[in-house]
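Same chain as my last thread, 338 residues:
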Amino acid sequence: MTTTMTASTTTPRPVLLISDPLPARLTAELHGDFDVRQCRGADRAALLDAVRDAEALVIRSATKVDQEVLDRAPRLRIVARAGVGLDNVDVEAATRAGVMVVNAPVSNITSVAELTVGLILSMFRNLPAAAASVRAGEWRRADFQGSELSGKSVGIVGFGRIGQLVAERLAPFEVELLTHDPFVTPEFAYAHGVAWLPLDELVATADVLTIHVPRTPATTGLIGERELALAKPTMRLVNTARGGIVDEAALARALAEDRIAGAALDVFATEPPVHSPLPHLDSVVCTPHIGAGTAEAQDRAASTVLDAVRGAFLGRPVHGLANPAVLTGNAPKEAVAV
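reply #2:
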């Protein structure tokens, strides 16, 4: 629900800078409450110039908010990331500067879960290669014989919101659902129709291994040479989480040596993956980090963080706050009347 802020006739509206594209209908609603300005966040010089007056900065993934940006923004009170990942925001530096950082952690979960299922099916039925063949004027039906998903074992690494949604969507395919998550009990998994296994056993058992954990120091390289050596030659790996969780060099070797059957990757350690061999392997399906790339997810993300921005200027609780310590551990910046 949109709440309109009441500003006095003598008080300027807070400057809200949008540095990545947002849905036009949502930005139109901001003009009554904010002095809305826009720049292209990928243009570093333009961003550093525009952020000088900003009291709120709304970004997606193209804008990098680091110490330099924060130093150029003495009036900044909140950075709002219209999406889930905060890889492009120095949250610690923002906290030191007394700047709130918000995101929309559940905005894309349905979209990512649906993409995951789509990638699994595309591998089992060889859809990208079959579509490319027809586009090239060919009709090679016998070359694209696939496999049924029904009856296979699907191992879900990480049983948080997205992992649970993936399980719900795969259950009608009559698969065996397995998971590993050190923060989830076997009883919790069982209540969702999923068996909990140690990671090594999960990798060794799964026909499909799908990754749904955040990238942290503990999960970087979680699936590497040792884990892939445990996999069945029929195993297919899916990563729609974050690049770097799977050791890409080890994955490329396993695929090239036919030690696993295939992979579907929406994320890479370096994006775009111009130096990676993975996009060039016939057994790999690649997409350009489109997990959140639906109109519904983008609208939810933008709406969520814009509501948080309004809350910050109205003195209401700010939802989606990634650095709550900023409210208790740092002196707030000078309030701006709205």
